[in-house]
Amino acid sequence: MAEGLATGRPVIEARGVGLTFATADGPVHALKDVTLRVMKGDFVSFIGPSGCGKTTFLRAVAALEHPTEGELRVNGMTPEEARRRRAYGYVFQAAGLYPWRTIAGNIRLPLEIMGFARDEQERRVRDVLQLVELDGFGKKYPWQLSGGMQQRASIARALAFDADILLMDEPFGALDEIVRDRLNEALLKLWARTGKTIGFVTHSIPEAVYLSTKIVVMSPRPGRITDVIESPLPRERPLDIRDSRDFIEIAHRVREGLRAGHSYDE
Amino acid sequence: MAEGLATGRPVIEARGVGLTFATADGPVHALKDVTLRVMKGDFVSFIGPSGCGKTTFLRAVAALEHPTEGELRVNGMTPEEARRRRAYGYVFQAAGLYPWRTIAGNIRLPLEIMGFARDEQERRVRDVLQLVELDGFGKKYPWQLSGGMQQRASIARALAFDADILLMDEPFGALDEIVRDRLNEALLKLWARTGKTIGFVTHSIPEAVYLSTKIVVMSPRPGRITDVIESPLPRERPLDIRDSRDFIEIAHRVREGLRAGHSYDE
Amino acid sequence: MRSILPVLTVVAVIVALWYGAAAAMNAQWVRDQAARAGTEVSLAQILPRTMSQERPVLPAPHQVAKGLWEGVAGQKITSKRSLVYHGWITLSATLLGFGIGTGLGILLAIGIIHNRAMDQSVMPWAIASQTIPILAIAPMIIVVLNSIGVSGLLPKAVISAYLSFFPVVVGMVKGLRSPDAMQLDLLSTYNASRAQAFWKLRLPASMPYLFASLKVGIAASLVGAIVGELPTGAVAGLGARLLSGSYYGQTIQIWSALFAAAIVAAALVGIVGAIQTRVLRRMGMAR
Amino acid sequence: MTLVFLALVTWVVTLVLNVRISRSAFSETRIGRLVVPAIFGLTVLLVWELLVRGLQVPTVILPPPSAIGARIAGSLPVLWGDFVQTFVKGALSGWLIGCAAAVATAIAIDRSPFLQRGLLPVGNFVAALPIVGIAPILVMWFGFDWQSKAAVVVVMVFFPVLVNTVEGLAATDRMQRDLMKTYSASYAQTLLKLRLPAAMPFIFNGLKIATTLALIGAIVAEFFGSPIRGMGFRISAEVGRLGLDMVWAEIAVAALAGSAFYGVVALVERGLTFWHPSQRRQR
Amino acid sequence: EEVTLQLKWVTQAQFAGYYVALDQGFYEEEGLEVTIKPGGPDVAPVQVLLGGGADVMVDWLPSALAAREQGADIVNIAQPFKSSGMMLTCLKESGVSGPEDFKGKTLGVWFGGNEYPFLNWMSKLGLPTDGSPEGVTVLKQGFNVDPLLQKQAACISTMTYNEYWQVIDAGLSPDDLVTFKYEDQGVATLEDGLYVMADKLKDPAFVETMAKFVRASMKGWKWAEENPDDAAMIVLDNDDTGAQTESHQKRMMGEVAKLTAGSDGTLDEADYKRTVATLMGGGSDPVISKEPEGAWTHEVTDKALQ
Ligand SMILES: Nc1ncnc2c1ncn2[C@@H]1O[C@H](COP(=O)(O)OP(=O)(O)OP(=O)(O)O)[C@@H](O)[C@H]1O
Ligand SMILES: Nc1ncnc2c1ncn2[C@@H]1O[C@H](COP(=O)(O)OP(=O)(O)OP(=O)(O)O)[C@@H](O)[C@H]1O
Ligand SMILES: Cc1ncc(C[n+]2csc(CCO)c2C)c(N)n1
Ligand SMILES: [Mg+2]
Ligand SMILES: [Mg+2]
Predict the structure, then answer these.
(1) Which of A19, C206, D170, E48 would bridge E53 by S-S if both were Cys, CB 3.0 to 4.6 A apart?
(2) What is the pTM of this model?
């Protein structure tokens, strides 16, 4: 429906966000001084070493953690308010399916909660199962699926309803290259069609470059942003764009940023 | 210690192995007619589309599932017997840390069970924590760690004791490229030093090619082996071997195999 | 303590409801008495009279409070009229019974999850044992134990253990079976012995279930100890107070003993809860 | 003495037999599942019979199972009438009300931190009132018939179900709860779709314990006043006239009914919490 | 010599004689060391006796005879209570003024071996006890008099020395009540007697001990009859529950004295015969089906009263 273009309205605005966890053996600084602005229709990837705070930032955006410093606004409101308006679709790093529901039942869960009509529910479940290539597994229980299949089911669950903001935490980590490529394409299509704003955590540099309009490189302890790369790639992206000069250049820049981040580590 | 060379003694021998799960809506054929021979000191990677039976095969080797057809021998015994002799170190696809133990406590678990001396336990925990770059996190609880850190902790747990056969199910899936490279190198070193036999599931073709002496390509439903590639790469592998012709050729062959496997799917 | 205010609020609400109920339930008697005496009573006269009867249907809170206070503070604690004295007698049997019952319950649960023969044969009979009305066989237990020379604290503790072991068995069987497949598989790859699997996985994983069971179990122990006091001639203990109060229709005495018992029970459950919080925190499970 | 010896031999033999059977594949079958407890039960009865006869225990203290069996066969209509009075009217209705009330209270407690801190301690307190104390009071309030028995049962089953439900409602993990938050699910939705299903294994623990408590409660309450039928009435009346065979006949009915009740609840549990590890593959 | 006595009910003036004998050293004088075990609603004294928990017990003849039919070989060796204290106490306002008014009413009865006299009485009156409109509805009453006060029953069982006064204490006046003494209705049965196991009596030494016991106990009873208030205080001292009140026990002692009056401990055969006749005459479900034999003996009292 929507045009699928960045309309210039900021969706996520972080200003000097810091987040410290209190643990038994002292505080852990997960995020420090994170300032970032994401526009409507942006596809932002977060990349950074393990433990640098990517998940924490995504959780803060979704109002699942509360920054201890700075200010975070989503659609001009507090994340809490945005959450209450059902702005988010979230794919967690672990699949987190409910063991007492079948795969279809798990995907139906948000639809039930948001009050979709019965047949609309069925239609959507069928559609997203197909999208993540799980048709035929709707009646299975989570523990009867392989790791990658569970992950796809959890992606399907987040795609089943129309959240404005899609937050995906390493959604394709457990998938093979080929399925991953197909899902990447599917995700781009969906994004182009719906104009959603997407926050995406990945460890794959090519994936980040291929998908994003904006790549955020982070460094650990305390997690901070070391580089924000605006992609010059067109919004229309065939798979073979990955061999283009621009692509390789950006990938290189991301890799350098990552490496620099790691050296902080020592 | 050991030479770290394939000595010619078969460690894992599968002959016509099939495995069918009975579920409420009919049987699921997870493995079919899998025949494979892994020699002592081999580094075997399993690669294949999501849900093709990689995990199931690894579990069968470790006597966690029981083949419904064919024969499976480990070190010339049944997997069950081999398990009883503590032949396995297993890294599960999900971290599976015990929530009531700290990270150090989780790593100490196998050591306690196998009756290592107290100070030996401490030494090993320290060493492997360092190996997976988690020094300083020993006293944290699993839920205080990021996803990638949990995964590394579970790798550390499997490395802490000296199992002959190391079975690793997508151990590096949630890690960024740089940590992943470093851990790949560390794993190769460990393998060269100890002469362990390693079974390794991954979705990364370069990773598979970089690490393995043998790459097993699988196709789904029912899971079967479509290709077994013996790597001509030398056992000594600097990181830049990834730019060599041999490497690229093998990678290509694996990719083709994978693609073919996917087409079965339809 | 943050919980003072909420507790007080709830208590206040209950006390208010209670006064209302006391007035309503005791009024009938006042009216009957008046009718027997051939006089009329107005509402204003009924109210105060419902609050000070000697054998009310429902004693007013202050009457119970007074009874409790006299029972606890109004006597030397060695006095036979002291609730502290009777409470202690019941408590000692409760604790002994709880110890025996919990120990037995955990042992049975361990046996049941490790041994198929036990799982299949003991569980149905453990269930059946609990459907036997304890008050019916308590006298027989006492008689039998008596005839082999066991008397005093132990017979009561046996009955108390009989009531408390079951919740522990049910909870622990579930708890010890609650680890998921992967957690068990991990130990399986280590070829951990059953004992190791028990200590390192099943037991820690069962903690939430264990504590839920212990709370139920200790309350059941107290009931068991009180029940056990009846067929021993109900000579002492809160059970004896309840019974003799009931026998002589002394409602206030019943309620005082009842509250004393409930206070003991609540304290015991509270202690188990406090231990739970500490244990779970030490295990990193209290988040 | 020979009978006593025989009892010991029986015990050992059947024990060995049972262990054998349960190790064999036979115990996996539907029949096998029934055979093992049946053998165990028969052993208990046989040993009981032999010991009572061997040690010449007076029947007014403990009658042999054969006498109890004969009494059961001879008094079926009486036993049935008592069963209906005590189990169907007293225990079952009380169980239903009590469990429903406990779950509702647990939810109320869970819903409001204020109530949680206020009601839970008070709830512990009220619900831990000993049955022998409340039974006479409830008989006084609700009359002699089954209503007062049901009331006793309500009070008795309340606490175990409450404790287990509260514990169970807390048993979700963080990611499961966070998921609901991202949907901005209402409290009721979270409860219905996450907390309650996750709490089911705990709730059923409570419900199962409550089944046996309900029966005990209904029977014991009859000791404190009842119409002249009911299992508790019969037991107390027959104890007085030393009709111990009838007492044990009632106990046998109670045990049977209680086990069946428990079994039904356990079956429902199996159906509803099939996903819980304790109900899945057992090794 | 050690003797253990099992009472039928909780410590109260109903058993004053034994407590007095203990307290005043009457047992000691006979060279006996006596332990008194209180009973209660959940104690079946016969079971305790058979289980070896006591040497001698206090029980009522109807339940003792019923126990005999069940195979418990117990024998009455003495009968300190001459008359029965059982009665039915009714609320006047419920419309009962004579036995003919019972029809359709709800009556509270003690079970557990105490129901026989009542059932006999009803069968004598021709009233079925099945709750039919032609008969009466029977309630198993608990330990106290609440059913009457709460008007859940028109009449309840009371003892002249105990429950009746609880009703009075509760605030009802004798004018509000109608009482039917079993003695007056001709259905009285023998109450508190002393019983032992028959086979023990074969041992002359045991008979000797029991003779001493009965002698001392009767001395206690006579002392209690003469000093009712002091006896009540002795009972009070022996009550471990601390639940008894002085006024109630003093009054109870006064009433109990009326029942023990006229007994030297020897069982009156005529009373016995009358009880047996009453029990055997009980309608469809008589307590005892055949004339009991050897249910009592004068051997002990004869020796005691020499
Ligand atoms: N609940 C918590 N309590 C304490 N510390 C926490 C908690 N959650 C996360 N942390 C810490 O915060 C830091 C950032 O964690 P986060 O999960 O955001 O990392 P990440 O970037 O997502 O890493 P990964 O790629 O491995 O998933 C880590 O050091 C972690 O140990
Ligand atoms: N316990 C089970 N019950 C029923 N079916 C199962 C069970 N475990 C696995 N399967 C099925 O077996 C097939 C193979 O699963 P497996 O976990 O081995 O896949 P995998 O190759 O490891 O996939 P992934 O890369 O996604 O982890 C899948 O179709 C899965 O649905
Ligand atoms: C449950 C029960 N209720 C009443 C009695 C009757 N009873 C026998 S002796 C006695 C003492 C009288 O003050 C009483 C009331 C009983 N035996 N058991
Ligand atoms: Mg993360
Ligand atoms: Mg897998």
Answers:
(1) E48
(2) 0.82
